[in-house]
Write a structure and sequence with these properties.
This protein is an alpha/beta fold and about 210 residues long. It is about 40% helix and about 20% strand. The strands form three sheets. The chain has a six-stranded mixed β-sheet with strand order 7-6-5-8-9-10, sandwiched between helices. Strands 1-4 form a two-stranded antiparallel ribbon. α1 crosses α6 and α2 packs across α3. The longest helix is centred in the N-terminal third of the chain and has 18 residues.
Length: about 210
């Protein structure tokens, strides 16, 4: 089984990705969404966690073989960065959302030398804003950011454009389209719902998918 399909099945099995097109969720922004994603649930499901961390390690070995340090995003990427770094026998740290107001006032936790080759570990990519902030902090500290690995991406155009503008590569273990297709194949959602989900993904602010 391909990694995309395996991780898609895993996320659906523990409802880390939860589809509810007939009763949409409301995001903080007010947008109506047919999907809710909480990859923190992977940490409480040992087999899924094993699949995810092994897949992250395998992806880093294959796609970023020069990696010297893993850096997790705060807070969701920290545990995944730590476990994956353990598998790879590699140093890790994490980047805070803001600098501490006490002690050494660090924003980057863990040892990072200028010029070191870093991969950022993130759990979820939507519009890409938060992970790009992490990349920028690392670059300002003198790191060479090879790219990002993430568990899941919505594949939203805004996120794709932002990552391209920041000149940073992201590789996700699975994506919205794959999870939607697997959900339909396994009877988790109706096959007709896939079109609704893709229409939402293509333009989240357009609620016409609800009436499809």
């Amino acid at each position: 089984m391909q990694i995309k399909e395996l991780i898609a099945k895993d996320l659906l099995s523990i409802k880390a990705v939860f589809f509810r097109p007939e009763e949409p969720f409301t995001w903080a922004s007010g947008i109506k969404s047919p999907v809710y994603c909480d990859n923190r649930l992977t940490l409480t499901a040992p087999q899924v966690r094993t699949d995810v961390e092994n897949a992250l390690a395998e992806t880093i070995r294959a796609e970023y073989p020069e990696t010297e340090v893993l850096m997790g995003t705060s807070t969701a990427g920290i545990a995944h960065a730590a476990i994956t770094a353990h598998i790879l026998n590699m140093p890790m740290g994490y980047v805070r959302s803001g600098a501490k107001d006490h002690g050494r006032q660090n924003q980057i936790e863990g040892r990072l030398e200028k010029g070191q080759k870093v991969v950022v570990v993130e759990d979820l990519i939507s519009t890409g804003g938060s992970v790009i902030e992490v990349v920028n902090v690392l670059r300002e500290a003198g790191a060479q950011v090879l790219g990002i690995v993430s568990i899941f991406t919505y594949g939203m155009q805004k996120g794709i454009d932002r990552l391209a503008a920041a000149e940073v590569r992201n590789i996700s273990l699975t994506d919205f389209d794959t999870v939607a297709q697997v959900a339909a194949q396994t009877g988790y959602i109706k096959p007709d719902d896939v079109a609704k989900l893709i229409k939402f993904r293509n333009n989240p602010s357009d609620e016409s998918w609800i009436t499809l």
